[in-house]
Amino acid sequence: MTVPNDLPMQARCECGACVVTVKTRPKARFVCHCQYCQAFTGRDYSDVTPVRGGDLTLTGAEHVHYKTYRRLPPNLARGRCIHCDQPIIESIGPGPFKTFFVPSRTFDRPALLPAPAFHAFYNRRVADAPDALPKHSGYWPSQLAIIGLLTKA
To answer: CA torsion angle for 139, 144, 150, 153 (degrees, to 10)?
Structure first.
């Protein structure tokens, strides 16, 4: 089996202490406007690329500090580099069902990522998104859109 020459893909924090290597081309991407993503990224929204656990390795994991913003599920473990304080990875799920969310802007070749599919938790937006993507508001519509995207990917 031959590996395409555009793989693996890598994402990294600003200082380079944490490197995410993805061995398969990501198949999904979305924009989240929830208050937890806003707090985690320090931005109005979080553009994330989901990756299955078996398709990802994290080099420099000892340089990542994790924080959970919710007490109840679904609660993602959100990791930032302890050196540059940049968000680098989020994870949810047990064992073989583990899914990682990588900030899309940290990829070294973002042109290889899929286009965002939709906006989630749009009711929490700080500013309107000037695009034609579907915009899901509220907890259940947003969660169902994300679950549907992950199931297809």
So the answer is: -140
User: Any alpha helices (H) in the chain, and if so which ranges?
Assistant: 35-41, 139-152
Give Cα 41 to chain centroid, integer Å.
Answer: 11
Q: How far is CA 37 from CA 71, 103, 120, 126, in A?
A: 15, 10, 11, 12
Q: Which long-range CB contacts under 8 A does 132-136 form with residues at least 24 apart?
A: 133/31
**153, 27 Cβ separation under 8 angstroms:** yes
**pLDDT, tens only, 40-83:** 999 999 999 999 999 999 999 999 999 998 877 778 999 999 99
Residue 29's nearest CA partner among 128, 111, 95 is: 111
Whether the predicted model's global pTM rises above the 0.90 cut: yes
